[in-house]
Amino acid sequence: MRKMVKVKEHGLKILQGNEACVEGAVAAGCQFFAGYPITPASEIAEYMAHKLPTCHQGTFVQMEDELASISAITAARWGGNKSMTATSGPGFSLMQEGLGYALVTETPTVIVNVQRGGPATGQPTVSSNQDIYQARYGSHGDYELIVLAPASVQEMFDFTVKAFNLSEEFRVPVIVLADEIIGHMREKILIPEEVELLEVESPKHCKEPYRADDRLIPPSVEFFQGHNLIIDGQLHDEKGNRAGHDLEISEKLVERLNHKITQNIDAITDIETYETEEASIILVSYSSVSRSALSAVKKARAKGVAAGWIKVNSVWPFPEKALKELTASAKTVMVPEMNIGKYYREVRGILPDQKVVSVPLVGGKLHKPDDLLALILKEAKACTN
């Protein structure tokens, strides 16, 4: 059931992206935050420490490290509190074992990763998209999860609210994959008077807490409700009993954990477009690079070039069907991103009959609109020769 919930501190504001993320979490009903300070995500923890105790009588805990942080928010959600943590690349690496535990126990929670340059300690104060694969494949085993990539301060608010709703709907951790540029940018945003929140009712005395519905999603159960509930990191049956030794039960669970996302991908996919119909050159972008990509496409259109823009907000699960349909007219698809060219590989894999061009930038650089425009004009000229 969805209902409109009033937001106490609404209206037009000038906020940093990390601050907008906190405002979104509070509006979504987050009651528990556990984290460890790390650049460029530290402001989320700092602002949470200020906001949360005065909102929903929430709890802020600074943990000893990031693995403890994700463990704490997983436990808090089973205790009945919407929960969140925030980190950056090195801390996100430490969270991966806990992420796998949250996935197999189907714990709805939110993880914010404000990306910086890597590998290792890397570049603490500059931006990147280098965690795009880690967000999808970082933990071991077969699983699917949901990852949203904001490209503005407004989207840091909106996507955080959406992340909480998606996590509750699909009983899965949802990652908000931001970056340093968006996290530290200040922009005017509108915090609405009300937000739409998903409230999932818990069945009474559920004896099989992992028995899925026709969408492959189990019921919303938690501690202190009288359920016969076992939560374990090993593969389990519908009652939660360990079943890693039982090959049939294990197969059934792993397939469901994946299919509850992939079979509902149309409900998850979130894509924006600009002038893609009959465009011969299309830029596929996500995160802060989308801003430069859109500017370049508008400049190309002003010069008479049939260019188009696709902004992928839900980067995982990979929106294969939608991207195929939206790029059907294109002769060339370009994928600019602040990494060595990772999402490009996914796009190239689904478009074997079209020219797919990687436009990578590493070392903390962001694509300039005029540089992307030059590539578009060069490609347009090559197509006419």
Task: Tell me how many strands there are.
Answer: 16
Number of helices: 14
Which CATH class of the largest domain? Alpha Beta
- Low-pLDDT parts are none
Give the proportion of residues in helices.
25-40%
Short description:
With 385 residues, this protein is of the alpha/beta class. It has helices spanning 17-27, 42-51, 66-78, 89-94, 96-104, 132-137, 153-170, 180-184, 247-262, 265-268, 289-302, 320-326, 343-350, 369-384, and strands at residues 2-6, 11-16, 32-35, 59-62, 83-87, 110-115, 146-148, 174-179, 186-191, 194-198, 271-274, 281-285, 307-312, 314-316, 332-337, 355-360.
Describe the structure.
The chain has 385 residues and is an alpha/beta fold. It has helices at residues 17-27, 42-51, 66-78, 89-94, 96-104, 132-137, 153-170, 180-184, 247-262, 265-268, 289-302, 320-326, 343-350, 369-384; strands spanning 2-6, 11-16, 32-35, 59-62, 83-87, 110-115, 146-148, 174-179, 186-191, 194-198, 271-274, 281-285, 307-312, 314-316, 332-337, 355-360. The protein is globular and about 70 Å long. The protein starts with a strand and ends with a helix.
